[in-house]
Design a protein that fits this description.
Layout: E1 3-8, H1 15-24, E2 30-35, H2 50-60, E3 68-72, H3 79-89, E4 95-97, H4 101-109, E5 113-115, H5 127-136, H6 146-154, H7 157-164
Parallel strand pairs: 1-2, 1-4, 2-3, 4-5
Helix pairs in contact: 2-6
The structure holds adenosine-5'-triphosphate and magnesium ion.
């Protein structure tokens, strides 16, 4: 039984994350998806709650064909202890998939095998760029799996982001 771990903040879950997870699903028996900064929501850089992000991921991956667990992980503000924190929250795993330099560094120092998947269309498939598009009224729905667009619609997520970005 080979389990792979993949972490992101998923603010929101987009087609880049989705491409990576489809790739990972062919390499492992089970996937653990960590939702980082789980405690944050209703902020310009972190608009969605952990629960809303669970919904986005679960619905988008309904036909993945590989078992997966979605685990919210709160920040601990101590990078040197962060891998142990992750391991205390997630089912045991054999390797970590990440292209984030800090995540790669922390797992490698902790002796966990790391693989860095290729980035897909990073010019547009980026949480930061997608939040900017929502705020600037530019098209963004094609950059997310349809199930995620539906979740954002249900929670009025685009209007939430625009409202919290306004001046008082
Ligand atoms: P943000 O701009 O909010 O940081 P992000 O697009 O970087 O969003 P994260 O939620 O930070 O996404 O998720 C981080 C993980 O997703 C990292 O492992 C990162 O390398 C991967 N990732 C992000 N965008 C892509 C992409 N376009 N293709 C492949 N992997 C991606
Ligand atoms: Mg990022």
């Amino acid at each position: 039984m080979k389990r792979g771990f993949y972490i992101g903040r998923f603010q929101p879950y987009h087609n880049g994350h989705h491409e990576v997870l489809e790739h990972i699903s062919k390499e492992v028996d089970e996937i653990i998806i960590g939702i980082g900064s789980a405690q944050l929501s209703h902020m310009i850089d972190n608009p969605f709650t952990a629960g809303e992000r669970v919904l986005m991921i679960t619905r988008a991956l309904s036909s993945l064909g590989c078992p997966y667990y979605v685990i919210p992980i709160e920040d601990i503000q101590r990078n040197a202890l962060w891998v142990a924190h992750v391991q205390s929250m997630a089912p045991p795993f054999d390797l970590c998939y990440s292209s984030n330099p800090l995540v790669v560094r922390l797992f490698t120092e902790a002796g966990v095998k790391v693989q860095s998947p290729a980035m897909y269309e990073r010019d547009t498939l980026s949480g930061t760029k997608i939040r900017e598009r929502i705020l600037n009224g530019k098209p963004w729905k094609k950059l997310l799996p349809p199930a995620v667009v539906q979740v954002i619609k249900e929670i009025d997520g685009d209007e939430r982001l625009c409202q919290i970005a306004r001046d008082d």
